[in-house]
Write a structure and sequence with these properties.
With about 200 residues, this protein is mainly α. Helices cover about 75% and strands about 0% of the residues. The longest helix has about 35 residues.
């Protein structure tokens, strides 16, 4: 395990992660452009499966990219959102593997506030995604009720399941971040309870 840890520590994740994810993002954007050709014939407001996979791949970086694309353009904004999110994630991984456990934000109350806000946003994203996915699976007129069957079929609908994949992305990332921020807040609460007990 020490050998693996040393090998991982040598990787500059703050550069490697954004480079890999930017390449994958560019590939999905290209696929989105291909699948959008003639998509209006099947759906008056098409969202391609490739677009959904962008959300699944980049998580918060995808939603940051949605904001940036309104400011600086579609492809550049989405790509920049991905780069910012994964570069920051890589920076945090580098810190952790380097043994640096010092909080980036020193003031405890600010960290608690940010973690609380993160938990609320994660829960809202999760609730919205569950509602969206439930609605999608009741829309039997559009495609097969089982998404995997649609993906396996030769129907053009398999390229237009972006809303459903985005809902799955919301569930995956929402659950992950809800657990992360929940654990941080629980750890703080237990720490405070221990301090009070010692007094």
């Amino acid at each position: 395990m020490g050998c693996v840890h040393n090998a991982l520590r040598r990787v500059p994740w703050k550069f490697v992660l954004p480079a890999v994810m930017l390449t994958a993002t560019a590939a999905f954007l290209r696929l989105d452009a291909v699948w959008m050709r003639g998509a209006a014939y099947w759906d008056d407001m098409p969202v391609t499966s490739a677009w959904g996979f962008l959300g699944l791949l980049n998580g918060p970086g995808f939603w940051l990219g949605q904001i940036l694309r309104a400011l600086i353009g579609d492809y550049v904004g989405l790509s920049l959102g991905s780069v910012i999110f994964w570069a920051y994630s890589g920076f945090l991984i580098d810190r952790r593997l380097g043994g640096n456990r010092t909080p980036i934000i020193g003031k405890t109350w600010i960290r608690v506030l940010l973690h609380s806000l993160g938990l609320v946003v994660a829960c809202l994203a999760l609730a919205g995604a569950v509602t969206s996915l439930r609605f999608a699976f009741t829309d039997f007129d559009k495609y097969s009720p089982w998404m995997m069957n649609t993906f396996r079929s030769k129907s053009p609908w398999r390229t237009l399941l972006g809303r459903d994949v985005l809902a799955i992305a919301g569930i995956v990332w929402g659950l992950g971040y809800a657990q992360y921020f929940g654990k941080k807040l629980l750890s703080f609460a237990l720490g405070q309870a221990t301090l009070k007990a010692r007094r």
